[in-house]
Amino acid sequence: MSIIRRDLLTMGAASAALIGTGMKARAQGKPVIKLGVLTDLSGPYKDATGPGSVALTRQAVQDFGDKGFAVEVIAADHQNKPDVGAAIARQWCDEGVDAIVDVPTSSVALAVNQIVREKGKVFLNSGAATTELHGTQCSPNTVHWTYDTYMLAKGTGSAVTKAGGSTWYFLTADYVFGQALQHDTTSFVEQAGGKVLGASPYPFASTSDYSSFLLKAQGSGAKVLGLANASGETVNCIKQAREFGLDKTMKFAALLISILDIKALGLEAGQGLLLSDVFYWDLNDRTRALTARCKDKTGGNPPALVQAGCYGAALHYLKAVADLGVVRAKASGAETVARMKATPSDDDAFGKGYIRPDGRHIHDVYLFEVKKPSESKGPWDLYNLVATTPGDQAFKPMSEGHCPLVKL
After folding, report:
1. pTM, to two decimals
2. Quick one: pLDDT at residue 167?
3. Distance in angstroms (rounded) separating the CA atoms of residues 225 and 242
4. Which of these, 45, 113, 42, 111, lies nearest to 76 by C-alpha position?
5. Element containing residue 289 per DSSP (H, E)
6. Residue 62 belongs to what H/E stretch?
7. DSSP secondary structure string, 218-282?
8. Residue 93 to residues 29, 81, 217, Cα–Cα distance (Å)
9. Nearest-angstrom CA–CA distance, 245 and 239
10. What does DSSP say about strands 32-39 and 70-77: parallel, antiparallel, or unpaired?
11. Cβ atoms of 320 and 347 closer than 8 Å
12. pLDDT for 243-269, tens place per residue?
């Protein structure tokens, strides 16, 4: 338990309270479902996932209510390392965790995906973006809930190219997520009549000075700087690019950026930026209500997309457990996921949706534009809605995914 205990300490009293709830329920004789939030608690994705993912999973448990069984939530830091994440996932499965939630960083998620299948548990992925989770490496035990590289690439790559960004240069985090995002975006740029002039891959999670890569991008003559990275890395890239004056000759296309990143960047630097997202706190009455319920658990910040995904996936999973029965749900993760697929989803983060046979959750995708400072009416009033893409058009068709579970 050394890894898990050490990482749980970083969660402080919040995790302790969650675990205590499960222990109390055991004392009362109720059956217990255990959720393990495997996330980034100390690295570059901490703000967009991390403690917020734990808080939104906890909110899902609270909103689900008492249906005759208790829910225990634990958490650990995978440190963005596949070997660390795999070790924790294997230990959790052996010790009775029923479902693993979140798992940002695609390389870690792919490792966890295999272990969960071997162990007969459930993987509720929110944080990883690789389409392989519902493609060639799809599993009857995995649900790919929130977003993926295809969706981001189609939503942003096509829109920016059609708006005049005909030539691109990529700055790419050199691991599964960044590589896939660059690949998918390139295909949509070319389909829209654009051209990619070059790319600079950089070591993920160990790079803070992007100057040499930015100079190469500037020298390429491209009209668009495509940022195939995420979270704090994207913010730092944009800030450094502006310091080098790239904003005078290039548009910036942030292929994955959360509302927390935009807040950190500021409207002065971020205004006009186009981005694709699946959740915005001020989108409708339901998203505003969810944000109001969980704001005390997230330090007053609205949920970011991955955190909202943890909420939606965990809530739908718990509904499936209640429908199937705790004994059967604990006995077979694949049967529980099958019940999730057979039941339409509906929650305050994503509204109505469903899970395809390949495990991909389907929901609407939104194109937002970052507001000008003069347009904003409050500290989190950051986006204007530009367009909505229906879910059945936003994600990769099953015919192109090559999931072995799908018979077309």
Report:
1. 0.87
2. 98
3. 12
4. 42
5. helix 285-294
6. helix 50-64
7. HHHT-SEEEEE--HHHHHHHHHHHHHTTGGGT-EEEESS--HHHHHHH-HHHHTT-EEEES--TT
8. 22, 18, 45
9. 10
10. parallel
11. no
12. 999 989 998 999 988 899 999 899 998
- Hey, what are 296's tokens? 């005390």
User: pLDDT value at position 19?
Assistant: 38
Whole-number Å distance between alpha carbons of 408 and 389? 24
On average, the pLDDT of the chain sits at 91
| DSSP code per residue over 7-51 | HHHTTHHHHHHHHHHHHHHHHTT--EEEEEEEE-SSSTTTTTSHH
Tokens of 262: 């935009």
What residues contact 321, with CB distance under 8 A and at least 6 apart?
33, 69, 329, 336
pLDDT in tens, 135-162: 999 999 999 999 999 999 988 898 889 8
3-state class (DSSP) for residue 303: coil
> Alpha-carbon distance 345 to 341, whole Å?
9
What's the pLDDT tens digit per position in 15-41?
333 433 444 445 468 999 999 999 999
Cα separations in angstroms, 338 against 88, 129, 212, 323, 332: 25, 22, 49, 12, 10
Quickly state the pLDDT bin for 206 (edges 50, 70, 90).
confident
CB 255, CB 226: distance < 8 Å: yes
Looking up tokens 């295909």 gives: 187
Distance, CA of 249 to CA of 177 (rounded, Å) = 27
Going from the N-terminus, what domains does the chain have, and what CATH number goes with each?
Answer: 2-147+284-362 (3.40.50.2300), 150-282+364-394 (3.40.50.2300)
Cα separation, 79 vs 304, whole angstroms? 20
The structure tokens 């008492």 sit at: 66
Q: Return d(Cα 220, Cα 222) in angstroms, integer.
A: 5
Reported as half-sphere exposure (CB side, CA atoms, 13 A), residue 233 has a value of 24
CB-count exposure of residue 6 (10 Å: 0-12, 13-18, 19+): exposed
